[in-house]
Amino acid sequence: MRINTKLxxxxxxxxxxxxxxxxxxxxxAQTTGSGSAAAPATEEIVVTANxxxxxxxxxxxxxTAVSGEDLQTRQELDLQDFxxxxxxxxxxxxxxxxxxxxxxxxNSGGAGATVATSIDEFPLSFSGSDSxxxxxxxxxxxYDLQRIEVLKGPQGDLYGAAAxxxxxxxxxxxxxxxxxxxxxxxxxINVDHGQTGASAKGFVNLPLMDGKLALRITGYDExxxxxxxxxxxxxxxxxxxxxxxxxxSLLYKPTNDLSxxxxxxxxxxxxxxxxxxxxxGAPFDPTTTSSAxxxxxxxxxxxxxxxVGSNTRNSLYLYGADIEYDLHWAKLSSLTSYGEVKNSFLNxxxxxxxxxxxxxxxxxxxxxxxxxxxPTTGATFVQHQTExxxxxxxxxxxxxxxxLKLVGLPIDWQLGMFLTREDVVFDQFFDVQSxxxxxxxxxxxxxxxxxxxxxxxxxxxxAAIFGQADYHLTSKFDVAVGFRDTYDTETSQITLTCCLLxxxxxxxxxITSYEDAxxxxxxxxxxxxxxxxxxxxxxxxxxxxxxxxxxPGAPADFPFTYKSDSTDNxxxxxxxxxxxxxxxxxxxxxxxxxxxxxxxxxxxxxLNGQKFNVTGxxxxxxxxxxxxxxxxxxxxxxxLGLLGxxxxxxxxxxxxxxxxxKGTSLAYVPKWRNTINADYDWTxxxxxxxxxxxxxxxxxxxxxxxxxxxxxxxxxxxxxxxDLHAGVRKGPYSVEIYAKNLTNAMGVLYYSYNGGYDGTGLxxxxxxxxxxxxIGAKF
Length: 779
What we know:
The protein is mainly beta. The longest helix has 29 residues, at 5-33.
């Protein structure tokens, strides 16, 4: 654990919570005596999938909600952790700041995201398809959350662009107007083959004016222990990092009709290096498969000999105002926010194979640069990349109050307007850098300049009107219809930097794309009885198109812009309780038609033969399958669960630019993914309560990204993980121990047949066995 800023942030988080604990104890008698009480807890999970409160059991779409309590008990701290609790949801993770979200098989390997993100109804993800939006996912820490909702299938009618495949909604614990509350926890964690780290988290809730004004502050600071070393340059635990953040929320309710909630959120994350480890690979013949290609090289050690660590930095900012006014026949809402998602990193290209060279004379990128006068020893070839979005949002929404009728029948409706502007930074520069002090960038004596690069700033603007009406034709049968009409523009102007890669420095002409897209949904629902809901849903989705980064020597078929892609989604499902609500059943089937899919395509420069990946459109695809979530409580305190999905996702039209034919599987979509949960809690003696639990997750084999280059679309092996946790509580105090990936499974998340030192490959594995302990208190 770091001693300087790390310790100070940890002490601050604990100090806030400790002060709150004292305040809570001092105020307890006063709170009880005044007759104030906290809001009563609901028995069933209530969600806001349709931007109004509903029981999850009644929602007419595929949706999974994970409670904040379950997230903390299972130590599910981020996307990679809780995805296993959501049927049909998988994460392709490079490090904690780089996550590709795949929902119901919708992932083509394109640059644009298909899954949107919001925090307390404020959008915080890229809407446009510029930059690497599909990888630069919002990944906040899950501490002090009320729940996470994952809505499956297109959500464009209510949530706009980038929700073509679904949306992940983070719902935080808001300020409580009536009660002093506080909590704090401290933990220690160790990763097999690696280091030990620490964490400190806390929150405080302060009612400043009884029933009218309250403040909630949450803070966290945690190590990300490293376990991969770099012996070539003497870096131990090279992939270590840390994450820290704070949320502040102020709720003001001057009257029963008006509420104003202001939110500020700030999170920083730093990884010294990616989670790549050198594996055997197949650098000289990437089409040759071997049972050893995914095994660790260097005698089975977790190593990555690289001259420059990735030094990934990820930051999230969100400032929002949620104002609601009750008109008594409808509720008027205004949501205003500004957010930022940013990733910056380095890449070491020292050992990456120059793919245009025939196998008999394979050389690395750095060696290829030697022909232009760059040194091939005592230097390294480095990529510097920054990608970020500054996002301004404004939504106005008018939602009906319960009890309104149309032609004598109940109807729930909402109408809204949404505006957003995104300023995107996408800078990508390459340099040859000296490995000796002062580590300066080197120029080519033949070209008179550095390697070069490009800046691709862009602006995405969207204006939309949307609405939804849920018409109750009988007491048991209703139909919800939603629509959205969206007009968007995206403008980009590329600036090239001298000299070798892009040619002379230049500012290219501005490129602008325009689109007018309409999406809609229809969802009939039938409530057989209070325990059983049957539903169907048809919904359309779209993902905006945009301009491309021009490559040097662009061939004649180069796509200067790419089109939006679209989906038609069909689903049907049933949710029911059985045997006195001791058994819960949630099953759905879905079918998706995907047209003009955006995907990274490979083009070869006519100037130097180098290959570049840019976004294009490639035919059509389909994804279909079944999702299920079963829960059984056979005795008091024991809960057993089985959840998962079967998904088929493949091209229905060949994509020659990707060397992919009809029937080719889409990337990183497991055919089967199953999770088994078992949790038991009981009273040991007096006020001591104990709990134990475990989770087993099976992830089927997947294929890597499509592409017209050697070693693309490699089949990665399946794997199974086991997590365990146990703890004791007494009143507000708790102690817990846990183990994640107890069996040390070697699940491969990403694979490259080359790129490792001395002709090896690179792979990104799930984190090795991790054990930890935490102590906490909550009042």
